[in-house]
Specification:
The complex is a heterodimer.
Chain A (H helix, E strand, L loop, with lengths): L3 E4 L2 E4 L5 E7 L5 E8 L3 E10 L2 E4 L7 E2 L9 E3 L8 E8 L6 E2 L3 E5 L1
Parallel strand pairs in A: 2-11
Antiparallel strand pairs in A: 1-3, 3-8, 4-5, 4-9, 5-6, 7-8, 9-10, 9-11
Chain B lengths: L3 E3 L4 E4 L4 E7 L6 E7 L6 E6 L3 E5 L2 E6 L4 E6 L8 E9 L6 E4 L3 E6 L1
Classes of the chains: A mainly beta, B mainly beta.
Amino acid sequence: EAQVTQNPRYLITVTGKKLTVTCSQNMNHEYMSWYRQDPGLGLRQIYYSMNVEVTDKGDVPEGYKVSRKEKRNFPLILESPSPNQTSLYFCASSYSGDEQFFGPGTRLTVL
Amino acid sequence: QKEVEQNSGPLSVPEGAIASLNCTYSDRGSQSFFWYRQYSGKSPELIMSIYSNGDKEDGRFTAQLNKASQYVSLLIRDSQPSDSATYLCAVNMIQTGANNLFFGTGTRLTVIP
């Protein structure tokens, strides 16, 4: 089954404790992206990757890091999480950046 | 100015009616337009894509694009209670030089049985 998977689905952590949210796709897509979704603000792009070893900032990259060492994986790293990073996070993938397919989401709470 | 704008709603329509969802965008050079459906607590699901001016129909859904007016809409015919969701308009904007989607904040649709 073609899919984008994310782990964990739910995470509660404390300020400053480094965390990684994994994302994996099995569709051989070149393009992968991370979004955060907040009430009233919609989906905002954090980082994206056009291909292996190629990443770039989206609209709200501050406080986040990514890496793309393999085509199928695109982890999101929060090195020192803060409460304003409490949000719903989605990973997405696509052949070109157009028709993007989303993972199930990760709900993160930073206390 | 927001890059992709939608009425937040909520939009309520009776079962069997036509629901009309609208979206405007700021980048005149945009070429690709999408509608996503998002049920509460779930991830966005792509339901329509449109690239050329005019109408594109898929089952009960019709997407309409007018690039001159920078306007894209989604019509849902014979609305069903299962269509109750938030509908997100997304536009692939070239202004950043990259292939990225910008999303509106979504319109919440409620179909009343």
